[in-house]
Specification:
mainly alpha, 2 domains, 11% strand, 9 helices
Length: 325
């Protein structure tokens, strides 16, 4: 049997070239008042990193929703004849050495190496596909109890990455129009009891995203600070989540971003990186929770002789859709 062709990692020169392209596009979009467009694109493609969304936009400025060929097949769509793909950067996984094999730097060096190597993968914009109507999950007033439960499971899993916990608290602990509270010292999020399903779901994803984003900041943070920076971060998180979960993005105003000079735009990219990383973690875990719930339902409804493996243990021979850089 012929071996599959090995995909080569990017060379350092090629990665520098991609970095220069994405950086130029980032500055151009902010300068030309397209910052909100960038946030919406990121929200619509929440499993990809900010750099990969920018990379796709350098190849196709009109791209909207991108997925791999296998993912589109899962949604009942297929690639049209001569459909044009886009390249994204995927991390190359390496096996960390065993403890007794590690050099004096320990596993740190292996992990750093693992994070620094990338190879190309290929995806297609929805405009290059046809088939069933694409309906991403949206948090609407019609969200069911089961959907809320699955979403909260994803939120809890995202929070656990940063050792946060989440619980429901009595209404008396909240002020008027307060739906959640974050205790950074106790690493605890409190959600208000007896809210409807839509409000509960929105409060959970908003609170989790804020808590996780804040946890990424440390004394070495080199982005913009102060009240205005925090306001922009909050609006950016809200816009990304609205775009991802089907809410209206019209109320979000980012006119002040276009007035930033080049130095501030460059510094603000650190803020945006944290915003994107935090919201991506929440969106990823929620997506995974829904995928697992779907797999469990399909397995439960299949004839007994057709049940193979465990629904919560996906085939490890396939690269997870959450592994894209």
């Amino acid at each position: 049997m012929e071996n599959k062709k090995t995909v080569e990692n990017y060379t350092e020169d090629r990665r520098d070239e991609i970095t220069a392209q994405t950086s130029a596009l980032y500055h151009s979009m902010l300068e030309n008042g397209q910052y909100k467009d960038l946030l919406v694109k990121f929200g619509q493609n929440g499993k990809y990193s900010l750099n990969n969304v920018l990379f796709m936009l350098t190849q196709n400025p009109d791209m909207t929703v991108a997925k791999s060929m296998n993912e589109w097949t899962r949604y009942g769509r297929h690639i049209v004849k001569d459909g044009q793909n886009m390249e994204v950067m995927a991390p190359t996984r390496t096996v960390a050495p065993k403890e007794n094999e590690a050099d004096e730097s320990g596993e740190g060096e292996a992990k750093a190496k693992r994070a620094s190597e990338f190879h190309p993968m290929y995806v297609f914009d929805i405009s290059q596909t046809e088939g069933d109507e694409y309906k991403p999950f949206a948090i609407t007033k019609d969200i069911t109890d089961e959907q809320k439960k699955t979403l909260l499971d994803g939120v809890y899993r995202a929070l656990s990455v940063k050792r946060y916990k989440c619980k429901f608290a009595d209404e008396s602990e909240f002020g008027e129009k307060e739906y959640y509270a974050i205790d950074k010292d106790k690493k605890l999020i409190k959600l208000r009891k007896r809210m409807n399903n839509q409000t509960t779901a929105l409060a959970a994803v908003t609170a989790a995203s804020k808590a996780i984003c804040d946890s990424y900041k440390n004394e070495n943070f080199s982005g913009l600070t102060g009240t205005e920076a925090e306001r922009l971060e909050s609006l950016s998180r809200g816009c990304i989540l609205a775009a991802h979960f089907g809410s209206d993005t019209k109320p979000y105003d980012f006119s002040s971003v276009a007035e930033m000079d080049e130095e501030k735009r460059e510094a603000f990219r650190n803020n945006l990186g944290i915003v994107c990383a935090g919201t991506k973690l929440v969106m990823d875990r929620i997506s995974t929770a829904f995928y697992k719930a779907q797999q469990a339902r399909e397995t439960a409804s299949a004839p007994e002789e057709e049940i193979v493996g465990e629904p919560f243990r996906p085939d490890k021979s396939k690269k997870s859709e959450m592994e894209v850089a």
